[in-house]
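Justification of computing resources. Each target in the renewal requires a structure prediction run like the one illustrated here; the chain below, 192 residues long, is used simply to show the kind of job we budget for.
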Amino acid sequence: MTATIPITSNEQANQLLVEDPLALLLGMLLDQQVPMEWAFLGPWNLRERLGGELDARAIAAMGEDAIEAVFRDKPALHRYPGSMGKRAYALCQFVVDEYDGEPARIWTEAKDGADLLARLNALPGYGTEKAKIMLAILGKRLGVAPDGWVEAAAPFSDSTPRSVADVSSPETLAQVREWKQAQKAKKKSKAE
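Resulting structure tokens:
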């Protein structure tokens, strides 16, 4: 399986999401109240502003105010740069405190799908839905498929094009967007 997350128009940013676990965690964190493409381009832009490296330890050492300022620099990294900068800092600090700065340990050390979901759900800025989507990204896009991941990530593990986990091409991105618009018109959520 060749891992791909072709969500942005920047191929290097897409590859960063595959190669850098922190970039992927941050992209998912930022996927809130902005287009998916902008959210998942955020880690690439943050890395560029930080001198070409994303490192949870370095970001945590900078402190919340410094990271918030980086998010606020023009152009802002998110529609809500202050709150998302604080959340990005909190996520990095959590990764340092709980996983010694190694974000991939969240999934490499998980016992099964339920444990991985619990680990993702514990991340600052993640709720149940975001954790399930992240688990679906890991399973569908990156081949990280511990026993029980399909059940733990449901409904985002199914074949309905409902989230970023289902984006494998520009065509599937359009399908996800169409599905979300249809759900919104029916006043239903992504999980329904």
